[in-house]
Amino acid sequence: MTKILVLEGVTKHFPVNSFRKHGQFVHAMDDVSFALNNGEVLAIVGESGSGKTTTANVIARIYKQTSGKVIFEGKELSRFMPRVEELEYHKKVQMIFQDPFGALNPTRTVGRIMERPFVIHKIGRGRREVDEKIDEILVQVGLEPPIQFTEKFPHELSGGQRQRVNIARAFAVEPDLILADEPTSMLDVSNRMSIMNMMLFLKESHGVSFVYITHDLAGARYMSDRIIVMYAGMIMEIGPADRVINSSYHPYTKLLKSAAPSPESGLKRIPLTTGGDIPSLINPPSGCRFHPRCPFVREDCSKEIPTIKKVGDHHYARCIL
Ligand SMILES: Nc1ncnc2c1ncn2[C@@H]1O[C@H](COP(=O)(O)OP(=O)(O)O)[C@@H](O)[C@H]1O
Ligand code: SF4
Ligand SMILES: [Mg+2]
Q1: 260 lines ligand 2 (CB under 6 A)
Q2: CA of 233 to the centre of ligand 3 (A)
């Protein structure tokens, strides 16, 4: 299987913007390594603050990594790319953001918003072809008939419709990779399922690869072929979606699973039980970053960062047990 994207030992440290903590860094990503196969959906799951968005932003080159390699379509991305190459990359790698409203320019109609990527990336010969392409993709995301939407402004649309515009815009330029950062978390439940199904349909019909970020394990399982579980800036477990869910290995994955809404819990979200919140990433815990919360913690857990070990077929976890 060919790999579209490979991350090798990627770190991202943000300098802390405070006089008292001058010279310190937020360790938002540490030693993040994974590969995405062509056509695959890979989910990244973890609580808020675990480094998911930073990972997407590093892949999208919104931020440059502190160290490590990002390899796309077989080529390592250099820190500084010529403008043309950077633009080409931004066409091939599209993002869908969490906030469907914030991502759309409120002063432009849907038609104008949809036109922008065609102009920027010089796609389509002439007005007519661009309009046809826009209509086609709007129909694919369920905004039909397109004429009813192209003249509207974002504030005239519902949250679900706005996110459909964002998704249409991401797919319009025929990218190779889509990074979707919690695309349904701000939508009401009634919209979530149809938007997830629509993204899966578009992913198949447009033949793209997909990184799907979510804090919801059930959503990750529904959407993805494989799941990465991130905690405090590091990958804790990675493997085929069914194995990560049904044969979870890492204590943190088990904790996430126990907190997920289930029929037994009346579909209510149970608070994460073991003590404490996600630790400060300015001074991350020594050794295993999960040790202050881990129910199975042992003395040596705080000594060294555990390496990622194979625990099954294509299944890996970062735990000394
Ligand atoms: N631009 C930034 N500057 C400084 N710290 C940041 C920045 N972006 C994210 N962080 C920090 O990095 C950590 C990971 O954040 P993020 O990647 O947004 O996590 P998630 O998406 O999993 O909630 C957090 O501690 C966050 O405060
Ligand atoms: S290494 Fe230790 S603290 Fe970390 S998850 Fe495994 S048992 Fe828990
Ligand atoms: Mg985030």
Answers
A1: no
A2: 12
Task: Report residue 270's pLDDT band, with 50, 70 and 90 as the boundaries.
Answer: very low
Nearest to 31 by CA among 300, 166, 232, 213: 232
Q: Which ligand approaches the C-alpha of residue 303 most closely?
A: 2
Alpha-helical (H) ranges within the chain are: 52-59, 83-92, 110-120, 126-140, 147-150, 159-172, 189-206, 217-223, 241-246, 251-259
Q: What is the pLDDT of residues 146-191, one digit of tens each?
A: 999 999 999 999 999 999 999 999 999 999 999 999 999 999 888 8
Q: Which residues line ligand 1 (CB under 6 A)?
A: 14, 26, 28, 46, 48-54, 281
Q: What is the whole-number distance in angstroms between the Cα of residue 226 and the centre of ligand 2? A: 22
Encoded tokens for 191: 């919209």
All domains in the chain, ordered by first residue? 3-82+90-103+176-187+204-317 (3.40.50.300)
Q: Which two tokens stand for residue 303?
A: 């000594």
- Strand-strand pairing, 93-96 and 177-181: parallel
**Minimum-distance ligand 2 atom for the alpha carbon of 251:** 5
Longest Cα–Cα distance in the chain: 68
From the CA of 59, which ligand is nearest? 1
Sign of the torsion angle spanned by Cα atoms 242, 247, 249, 254? positive
